[in-house]
Amino acid sequence: MSNIRDVFFPPPARDIPEQEIEDCIPCNTVQALVAMGGGLWLASENQFRDKSTGKIDAVKNPLWWRRSVRGLGLTLFVLGTYRAFEVSQAIYHGQSKST
């Protein structure tokens, strides 16, 4: 079967077993932490500062570029926060089913 064909004619939905959901929790936790950390780093202006003087060179890094990178960082941080919320929700629902 072709992967491109599956985009237009997807296979039928299936029930995801509980074990498969539990196996996703560690990976999703790492994804959330990396996205939040990377987003915070991109949202700060530290990557634009000169290491020796500590000032931002406006010629090498124009304002539109800095704002674009910071916006991407904020978007990445929000995505990481959303993933962290999904992980906490999966853990909470997993514990509430077992009790």
Automatic annotation (TrEMBL):
Domain of life of the source: Eukaryota
InterPro entries, A to Z: Mitochondrial_unc_protein
Name of the protein in question: DUF4536 domain-containing protein
UniProt source species: Lodderomyces elongisporus (strain ATCC 11503 / CBS 2605 / JCM 1781 / NBRC 1676 / NRRL YB-4239)
